[in-house]
Structure formats: C-alpha cells, structure tokens
Amino acid sequence: MVRSPTVPDAVLLAESEHAARGFLAGRLAQDGYEVVGAAACGEALELAERARPDLVVVGTPLPDATGLELCRRLREGEPGRSWNRDVPLILLGEPDDDAHDRVRALDRGFDDYVERPFVYDELVARIRAVLRRAWRTHRDRLAAGDVVVDRATRRVTVHGRPVVLSGKEFELLAKLAEEPQRVYAKQELLRDVWGFRSPARTRTLDSHASRLRRKLAEVDGGMYVVNVWGVGYRLLRE
C-alpha cells in the first residue's frame, strides 16, 4: 500500500444495487478517491487482482456470495491468483442486522462495519480512519515476496516460517525490504544500518549479508540478499 501523496487512494466498491453503487462511486470520486465498481463477488475478486485497491467496501448481499464469503476469499487467497490479502475491508450491513451480525463480520476479517441506512459523511470518515490504520500497519509490516518483516515485533517469516536473526541482520533485512528490487549502495547501507558517517573499508556489511542470505535460504532454498558486484545489495533477484 505504498502510494505517493499525489496519487489518490483506490477504493473497490462491491455493491450489487446499481443505484447505490453509482451514488457511492460518484460521491467518493468527488472526495478524491479512485473508484472501481463490482456488482458481484467474482467481479470483485478479478478487480482486487487487477486494480490492487487500497480498500474494499462490500455491500451485502451480492448475487453470487454473501459479504462474509467475499471477505473469506479475499483473506485466504486462491490458488493461481494474487491480490493483497490484507486489504482493508468495510462491510455495509443490512438494516435488520443485530449486534451478533456486526461482531461476526469483524471476527471474520472485516476492519469496520457500517449499518444501513448510513450517512455518507460517516462512511467516508470511516474510510479515512481505516486507511490511516492500514498505513500505520504498512509502515511496520514489510512484505517482499515470501519474506515478511514486522518491525513492531521484530519478527521475520519466510513462507510463514519464523527466521531468527541478530539485531543488525534484522535491521539490514528491514532496510532492503523497503524496496526489495532496488540495489542499495554499500555506503548507504553502512550509513543507515551501522551509522557510518563517512566512507569506510570494512567487511561487516558483507559478513552480515552472507549470514542473512544463508538464514533466509535455509527455509525454502530461495536466493535472497543478492550481491550486485561493485555496487551493493538488493533483497530479491530481478
């Protein structure tokens, strides 16, 4: 969910009722959001994969699935398909929903619940709040392929399996994971990870990179922490 301040947040609106979908899409666009609309669960999944939205608003019921079913499929993923399984989700409930329905929606993976009939200004305020929370989480959680780095807990996993790292190995990985395809110059890494203020001849970066590479590869045999000769390192191969 890395977006330039000049790029509007993208909202996927999964709503089967044409009039409601058109009204919400128009108002959200006026408020500066990029909006893509889906009338059914299957279409919403296709757009989640293609458009990579920052947030999904789910109306219920959809003609081919309940809102809870769409949430489950987005959260669990599907073989051969790729989308952000952590994308924030807001459910637009039904007027006759009760407290049990609201709790169940949140327990199943929705980030927020807005009961119908709702005031548009409240909905857009909820959208902004959920996006703020997601952005804070994004800054603490870095995902690079099958490698996940959680800065808040200092936990690293590869394919969901934990990897134990030393303090500097973790900091080096976290730096490389910010832009996993970018080649970081050695002096930049020495400055940002070790605090070197001027060019220095040292093998500490290379030795830490070698140990980090080995520990990550032990999980799945993948090639990580790629040495670009004469320049520096990047986390993932091209």
Concise overview:
Helices cover 43% and strands 20% of the residues.
Task: Record the strand order, biggest sheet.
Answer: 2-1-3-4-5
User: What is the gyration radius calculated from CA atoms?
Assistant: 21 Å
Q: Structural class of the secondary structure composition?
A: alpha/beta
Unreliable parts = 1-6
**How much helix is in the residues?**
40-55%
**Which fold name fills CATH's third level, the topology of the largest domain?**
Rossmann fold
- CA-to-CA gap between the ends? 21 Å
What would you say this structure looks like, in words?
The protein has 238 residues and is of the alpha/beta class. The protein has two domains: 10-140, Rossmann fold; 145-236, Arc Repressor Mutant, subunit A (Orthogonal Bundle), CATH 1.10.10. The chain has eight helices and twelve strands. It has helices at residues 18-30, 41-51, 67-76, 99-107, 120-140, 167-178, 186-194, 204-220; strands spanning 10-14, 34-38, 55-59, 89-92, 112-114, 141-144, 147-150, 155-158, 161-162, 184-185, 224-228, 232-236. Strands 2-1-3-4-5 form a five-stranded parallel sheet, sandwiched between helices. Strands 6-7-8-9 form a four-stranded antiparallel sheet. Strands 10-12-11 form a three-stranded antiparallel sheet. Helix 2 packs parallel to helix 3 and helix 6 (167-178) packs across helix 8. It is elongated. The relative contact order is 0.09.
List the helices and strands and how they pair.
Elements lengths: L9 E5 L3 H13 L3 E5 L2 H11 L3 E5 L7 H10 L12 E4 L6 H9 L4 E3 L5 H21 E4 L2 E4 L4 E4 L2 E2 L4 H12 L5 E2 H9 L9 H17 L3 E5 L3 E5 L2
Parallel strand pairs: 1-2, 1-3, 3-4, 4-5
Antiparallel strand pairs: 6-7, 7-8, 8-9, 10-12, 11-12
Helix pairs in contact: 2-3, 6-7, 6-8
